[in-house]
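just leaving the lab so this will be short. below you get a single protein, a line of residues and a line of whole numbers that encode the local backbone shape. id like you to explain what the token line says about the fold, in plain words if possible. thanks a lot i owe you, the record is right below:

…
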Amino acid sequence: MPEAAAQSQASAAPAAAADPVTVTAAAARRIRKVAEAEGNPGLGLRISVSGGGCSGFQYGFTLDDAETADDVVIVRDGVRVLIDTISLEYIRGAEIDFVEDLSGAGFQIRNPQAASSCGCGNSFAI
């Protein structure tokens, strides 16, 4: 498995200039802050897309320190965002941000593929 993860990193490294998803500086800062609070600076943000939610698909956010063979790894300011290749097809071209406003704080995905989304922004339709 470590060999497969190394291959995934190697294939993702040259594409850094043309990452399939953009991670903002605010998102990278928040990932780092959460990882440090958890006592594990190696944690990355795993983003997944699954069926469900009020609009058809929903985003999932978890912390993970292990890469799998089918992960695309995006590095911004020393932190990692992990996206499996199936989920990536639903969010390709998106921007991952961390937003704090009167409604609360959280990761936000601005997905150009989403034809519509729910009010909370956690589910979408294509």
User: Anything to note?
Assistant: The first helix runs from residue 2 to 12. The chain has three helices and nine strands.
